[in-house]
Amino acid sequence: MAREAGRIKSMNSIPIQDERVEAALYEAVAMECEKVGVEKRTGFKILSSLLAESKRVQGGTSPIPRETPMQSFAKAVKLQSEGKKIIRLDVGEPDFRPPASVVNACIDALRNFKTHYTLTRGIPELVEALRNYLKSKWGFDGTEDEIIITTGGRFAVYSGLASVLSEGESAIVIDPNWPAYKQAIEFIGARPLTVRSTLEERWNPPLEDIKNSIRADTRAIVISYPNNPTGKVLDRETFRSIIEIANDYGLTIISDETYVDYAFKSCPTILNSDAEDFICIGSFSKTWAMTGFRVGYAISSKNTIDKMLSMASLMLTSAPEFVQYAAIAALGCDREARENCITMKERSEAVCDLLEKTPNIEVYRPNGAIYLFPRIKNTRIVAGEFAERLLSEKLVSVTPGIAFGAYPEHFRISLCKPKEVLFEGVERIGEALL
Fold first, then answer.
1. In what order do the strands lie in the sheet with 296-299?
2. Class of domain 113-332
3. For residues 264 and 66, which has the higher predicted lDDT (pLDDT)?
């Protein structure tokens, strides 16, 4: 039956995947489960397996090819290994050094042989330091049971999603966004439901589209502000509206606040909101330039954190002990965090000034984060092909917009280089667009 359906779709140029039809099927399964006394999650798993097999038989693939930021990274690294001097505007890794106190704390911990397994939650000293930090910064008075220290923010994202979602369920992701959310959701066996925002609407998420995307199997809404790649910071009213939608439908808000310390204006946080069910993701990587230390955290209910602890215990045991002592030192480095933010804001404004003078480019001026997401106005140029040509001909590496959703006309610029390097890169971008 699936092969015949695929043949008919192919003959009539009908997409293999139709989200409206899938939503109707999930609703029908939910009703049937209630009628016969079967748990909905069981029904959703069965339907999810049938749909996946049907798409496979029909030759279904993602309608838009995905390229991850790490693929752009790999291409640039390969050329560098061949001796080429590449202007790297692809990787989201701050060029700042970690604070001296962080490095010293790590060295001291190693010299004192803090090199052992720790509690999966994290060493008590770091958990307590983080509790105090969050209370001082956001007024959030969490308990030890509501905190987990993770090996990088990525694992916090994955384990948070896996604690909420089961196979056959879904979560809403607002595009454009970091591709790891969708990848993690799909790896779990769940389905990302995309809500598209646009440059024309200044990257404001369409609230009605969020409501209309909710299905019987939807369990969560993923938000990430300041946003990667757009630099968008939500206003408080929009932020509250998304939380109200989640509360009304009994959904978990998963708020990735990795870039919150790079907000150029007041940025709302889930930690002082009215969200009834949430997971807050944080990371030491960007704020204090500690990408290689691989340490992050999550804040949620005891029940959710217990699930995340089980996964971390199974897969990782714990974050490295000496790195956790470095993280304690980082929480006392507010001055360095503020200076990093000021530098990034200056770069963002200066590069926007240049891009606005560049033919065939339009750009949104960010409110935060460490990126720009320009759009090519010349419709004959596809940003993915442009990125390839820019790298091969001008030796400038950027990330194509398709890595972040259905944005083939966009590309991402990372601001993690000194101004003179950024200016040279933008000049070559302009030359490549002529």
1. 147-150, 296-299, 278-283, 252-256, 218-223, 170-175, 191-196
2. alpha beta
3. 264
